[in-house]
Amino acid sequence: MTGRPAPAALPWSLRAWLGPIAALAALVVVVLGVLYADGGKPGVADAWIRAAVDGVRPSWRYVALAMDFLGEPAGSATLVVVTVTGCLLLRHPRAAVFVVAGVGMTVGTTTLLKHLVGRTIHGDNLSYPSGHTAFFTALCLVVALLATGRLGLGRSAGTLLVLAAALVAGAAMGWAQVALGAHYPTDVLGGWCTALAVTVATGWLVDRAADRLVDRAADADRPGRR
What we know:
2 strands, 8 helices, two-stranded antiparallel sheet, mainly alpha, single chain
């Protein structure tokens, strides 16, 4: 086969740093899940943060509602379709797969964890971890990873971009969820960490599967293999 190899979903320059970060994030998810399993009340940190965020002005509430919509089925589906379309227009099918797989695996994991942990808010509404926060963080994280690879950023610049994107996305959606009373702050932290752990792991799996397909196609094209 000829031509340049497809860019990796998870840039090689970042793997040494993102691996431990993802492992730490997974540990946080587990610890918080154990602490708040089957609970229905805010913790000490939850109560303090909610008191600081509660009572936002009507104009800011509209912003929070707009952010919340991006995590709803219609809003999230639109964001994913737009992102996948952009990847395909740039002729980067592996990136398109990463978008769908990364976001899908993250949302699926949060749904599973909600039932396993059993933490509730406002009655019987399962709350840990925050699916809205996990979705938006995962999507922005995937885009940042793809931008890092496409721009050829080094380890330091790439890691800074990826973590900054995850922090901004998680903080924005997390603030909206707490301000609207939909989640406890620790639910938001759990959703953010879930996105970090699952997205990085999914990127590695997408690259591994895609590289195997490329290797098989290369073997099939060799004259001796015909």
